Amino acid sequence: MPDANSRFSGLTPLLSPRSIAVLGASSDPTRIGGRPIAYLKTQGFGGAIYPVNPNRSDVQGIKAYPSVESLPETPDVAIIAVPAEIATQAVIDLAARGTKAALMFTAGFAEVDDAGAAAQSNLVKIARRGGMRILGPNCLGVFDARTAYYATFSTSFDSGWPVPGRIGIASQSGAYGTHLYTLARNRGIGASLCIMTGNEADVTVGECIGWLAENPEVDVIATYLEGIREAPNLIAALEVARAAKKPVIMQKVGRSELGGKAAKSHTASIAGDDAVTEAVMQEFGVVRARNSEEMLDIAHTATRKIYPVKNTLGVITVSGGAGVLISDVATDVGLPMPEMPEASQKYLRELVPFCAPRNPIDATAQVGNDVTLVNKFAEAVLRDGGYSSILGFFSMTASARRWPLTREQLNLAKAKYPDRLYVLSIIAPRDRIEELEADGWVCHEDPTRAVVAIEAMGRFGRAFATPPGAPPPAVHPVPLPDATPSEAEAKRLLASAGIMSAPEQVCASADEAVAAAEVFGFPVVMKILSPDILHKSEIGGVLLGVSSDAAVRDGYDLLIARAKRVAPDARIEGVLVAKQLQGGVECILGIHRDPVFGPIAMFGLGGIFVEVMKDVVFRRCPFGADAAEEMIRSIKGAPLLLGARGRPPVDIHALAQMLARLSAFAAAAGPALRSVDLNPVFAMPEGHGAFAVDAVLEVG
Fold first, then answer.
1. Across the chain, what does the average pLDDT equal?
2. DSSP label at 684?
3. In the predicted structure, residue 290 carries a pLDDT above the cut 70
4. How far apart are CA 464 and CA 458, in angstroms?
């Protein structure tokens, strides 16, 4: 269990208790209040079990007590399996007794209606006054097979008990959490510990991930989320997991609008923006699984604890077709498969003239005639190819009579290079799979799923090896106005954070506009300036390429007239005259306040790329210039910034500095800042900076 001084150790009484009270204890081992007692007894829980039932002197052969007050000691945790109408009194009694944690099976709270939400909030207030944590309500509980702690009423154990292993599961959904566990058990995957958080009135899935990350008995964390109720503990947990080099595989549902609504109604939590959640996962090296099958594939592969920073795949196959299939999937997921050196290819052709020695390396069915070829091919691939990950496609050969010899040949080569990730795509009886896994191989039946899992190991490796980023720029918070400001005022506020705009001047007359234009030099841009007209182009409030004194005078009058006609009640501060920049690449930088994660920065190319292609990237604020540059280089349109087709590269350094400063400004501004939209920002040629041409800053 976690060290007593660690951040998440406060959950230990809940997740690894020494004594357990069961309120609503039943003598019927098939009822909700009876199952946990039956499981604890049959599996040999080593601590004290205290059934609480005022109508019985014993429950399932264990002495029962009429009330919490009558218990011989204060239990570490209490299971609450009583009706909702008396659940509040149960929490009051436990808090008064000094119980450190309660686990609530009871439903009928925030997942039902507003009255249930109010009752749930009251439960938490009572518990916190007594220093007690609550898991649930409406949760399926916890189990840890290693300590025989079964605080759950799941029926999944009717068909078998957990396979010993070092995968921990944290799930908001109880039914789906035990579904994952059952899938793992049926595949022989060791997932011994599962926490199901339910409504998350108090304890969140983020905290549970953190406790698992601090637990030395857990190596890999699989988590199922429907919505994220609070961010700080989740962020802290992911930081702890990455620092401990513990992979987190997350199945986050609610991508679609319909799915998001379903998640909110089911868990009474905020689903948030899926793109933002995706960005947070990428920030911490969390791998998102598309389905449960993929989650378990990746989690099982991760238990080998080999995470290549530079992940390359070498494939040995007995089927040319399988080699092509594997190559296609590797290309799709971005897993490099470098060719074997020419000298090694020549050597392999000498062994089997009709083999395919490039990579994938097709040893052909000839290995069935001469099993020593397995070792020779494998050793050549390991020695000469230098691949960090090896995938062998041997299909059904493990069922053949000569398989023990083949296994021996594979292991001979493997023993010389123990630092690689070894995976087999193989169909075999369970006992032979267990033998291979004991040898250090990871076994998958389907080769395409194996490739996906192998690629994920490289993502973990890169995340674990990434050093701490540069600190965010130092930005002193400035007071925000009470209402959304005009463009000029927005730019003034942003300039305090070092975010530069094109040279410009607010003009209250046509004469002032002409004078400003002569200072900047023609052509200029002219815009109506009003805090009530934020989207100026929609009313014809922007004039581009204004090239003479006369055109400036006419433009000034035209902009004022248009504003008064379209928005007669708008406050007009004048006309903004700005130098028209040329030769840069249009980008968009923005800030959006996410209801869960707070300010989120966005970057993308401007114009059609953001409107049609949606080629944008997000990151949680604040961050340094190195993270900003990584964002810029990650978009699909990055070549347009880096000098594609003879274009001069833009000033990436200045653009990254602007994005980092914007992130720091947003973090310093606090919750009053709703959004910032810098569109466009002109990224000028290298060495000439980046400038915001338009700025909308919303407060409220």
1. 94
2. P
3. yes
4. 10
279/55 Cα distance (integer angstroms): 54
pLDDT digits (tens, 9 = 90+) for 113-170: 999 999 999 999 999 999 999 999 999 999 999 999 999 999 999 999 999 999 999 9
Which listed CATH number (3.10.129.10, 1.20.1250.20, 3.40.50.720, 3.40.50.261) goes with 313-425? 3.40.50.261
Q: Where along the chain do its domains lie?
A: 9-302, 313-425, 503-579, 585-699
Confidence of residue 597 (pLDDT cuts 50, 70, 90): very high
Give the CATH class of 585-699. Answer: alpha beta
Q: What distance in Å separates the CA atoms of residue 594 and residue 272, rounded to the nearest whole number?
A: 7
For residues 80 and 91, is the Cβ–Cβ distance under 8 A? Answer: yes
Q: What is the DSSP code string of 248-294? A: EEEEE---SHHHHHHHHHHHSS----HHHHHHHHHHTTPEEPSSHHH
Residues linked to residue 196 through DSSP beta bridges, in sequence order = 141, 171
Residue 499 CA to residue 519 CA, distance in Å, equals 22
Task: Please give the share of the chain, as a percent, with pLDDT higher than 70.
Answer: 97
Q: Please report the sign of the dihedral spanned by the C-alpha atoms of residue 150, residue 155, residue 158, residue 161.
A: negative
Q: Which amino acid is at 111?
A: E
231 DSSP 8-state letter: S
pLDDT at residue number 610: 74
The position carrying tokens 């009470």 is 482
Q: Which CATH superfamily is domain 9-302 in?
A: NAD(P)-binding Rossmann-like Domain (3.40.50.720)
Residues 379 and 413 sit within 8 Å (Cβ to Cβ): yes
pLDDT digits (tens, 9 = 90+) for 223-276: 999 989 889 999 999 999 999 999 999 999 876 554 455 444 333 333 347 889
SS3 of residue 607 by DSSP: coil
**Which tokens hold the place of 327?**
């190559």
**Cβ contacts of 88 within 8 Å, gap of 6 or more:** 119, 122, 123, 126
**DSSP string computed for 307-334:** --SS--EEEEES-HHHHHHHHHHHHHHT
Residue 202 is classified by DSSP as: S
Assessment of whether the complete model's pTM goes beyond 0.70: yes
d(CA 513, CA 553): 7
DSSP assignment of 539-568 equals: GT-EEEEE-SHHHHHHHHHHHHHHHHHH-T
| Residues whose CB is less than 8 angstroms from the CB of residue 79 and which lie 6 or more positions away in sequence, other chains included | 20, 21, 22, 23, 24, 36, 102, 103, 105, 141, 151
> What is the CATH class of 503-579?
alpha beta
| Torsion (CA) 144, 219, 223, 295 in degrees, nearest 10 | -110
Helix, strand, coil share (%) of the chain residues, nearest 5: 40, 20, 40
Distance CA 69, CA 388 (A): 60
Question: Residues 632, 604: contact at Cβ < 8 Å?
Answer: no
Domain 313-425 shares a fold with domain 503-579: no
Between CA 238 and CA 213 the distance in angstroms is 8
pLDDT tens digits along 384-413: 999 999 999 999 987 778 889 999 999 999
pLDDT of res. 513 = 97
Phi, psi (deg, nearest 5) at residue 377: -65, -45
Give dist(CA 323, CA 686) in Å, integer. 45
